[in-house]
């Protein structure tokens, strides 16, 4: 594998930002690991971080580079701050960045496939929300999406937040009463995709049974199943922590339709 720390300028954000990129490399002589490539334009997983993290976190807390080496899968890990992958009311346009600009920039730098069947997105917590939002708002671009302990019921999280998080949510989403039924509401997006005649991404969802987001994850799973969406759900003992995510990202990689 090749690991690249890429600093670049974002026209959408108006500032320089960063991403880590893992690129497949066919190798036979590495001790303890064999790399693989499966085509000249690599299938790609956009791997999203959580609220208190940045683009380095998946590399620092898991063995993601080792996990993807035999798969021939590229991984793009961008930095988005505490944005909830949203064009913020008071802040940067991170939704436009992550959904439009980032894939174009990454493909201009690296040999990444632009085919829907080769593009996937996953994330933890805030990144789980971002992953499902990307796949459900852009079902023509992503074949599959995975949420690990995702903050999926954003409507209730925003409405019931106490300070200082309530003010932070206001700066991200604006008036809490406007979130429900908007393009930031995963329930609304799931229903919209289910009722459409267009492509529908495969969904994977997992959560620890002791996680404070567990009940919200169960509710969203049940809603997607009721809509008839293709969703795979797993759970197990665990809280909102990296031991759980390091284990289940391996399940995500096995599940991806590569």
Automatic annotation (TrEMBL):
<dbReference type="GO" id="GO:0016787">
    <property type="term" value="F:hydrolase activity"/>
</dbReference>
<keyword id="KW-0378">Hydrolase</keyword>
<dbReference type="InterPro" id="IPR000801">
    <property type="entry name" value="Esterase-like"/>
</dbReference>
<dbReference type="InterPro" id="IPR029058">
    <property type="entry name" value="AB_hydrolase_fold"/>
</dbReference>
<protein>
    <submittedName>
        <fullName>S-formylglutathione hydrolase FrmB</fullName>
    </submittedName>
</protein>
<dbReference type="InterPro" id="IPR050583">
    <property type="entry name" value="Mycobacterial_A85_antigen"/>
</dbReference>
<dbReference type="GO" id="GO:0016747">
    <property type="term" value="F:acyltransferase activity, transferring groups other than amino-acyl groups"/>
</dbReference>
<dbReference type="Pfam" id="PF00756">
    <property type="entry name" value="Esterase"/>
</dbReference>
């Amino acid at each position: 594998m090749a690991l690249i720390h890429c600093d670049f300028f974002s026209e959408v954000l108006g500032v320089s930002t960063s991403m880590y990129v893992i690129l497949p490399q066919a190798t036979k002589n590495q001790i303890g690991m064999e790399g693989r490539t499966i085509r000249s334009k690599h299938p790609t997983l956009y791997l999203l971080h959580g609220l208190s993290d940045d683009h380095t976190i998946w590399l620092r807390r898991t063995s993601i580079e080792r996990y993807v080496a035999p798969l021939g899968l590229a991984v793009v890990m961008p930095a988005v701050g505490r944005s909830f992958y949203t064009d913020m009311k008071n802040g940067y346009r991170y939704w436009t960045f992550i959904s439009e600009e980032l894939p174009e920039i990454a493909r201009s730098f690296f040999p990444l496939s632009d085919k829907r069947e080769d593009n996937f997105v996953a994330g933890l917590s805030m990144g789980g929300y971002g992953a499902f939002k990307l796949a459900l708002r852009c079902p023509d671009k992503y074949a599959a999406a995975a949420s690990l302990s995702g903050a999926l019921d954003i409507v209730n999280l925003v409405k019931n937040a106490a300070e200082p998080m309530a003010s932070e949510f206001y700066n991200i989403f604006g008036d809490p009463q406007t979130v429900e039924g908007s393009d930031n509401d995963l329930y609304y997006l799931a229903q919209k995709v289910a009722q459409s005649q267009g492509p529908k991404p495969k969904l994977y969802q997992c959560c620890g049974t002791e996680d404070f987001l567990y009940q919200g994850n169960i509710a969203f799973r049940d809603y997607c199943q009721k809509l008839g969406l293709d969703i795979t759900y797993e759970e197990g003992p665990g809280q909102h922590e990296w031991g759980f995510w390091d284990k289940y990202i391996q399940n995500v990689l096995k599940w991806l339709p590569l």
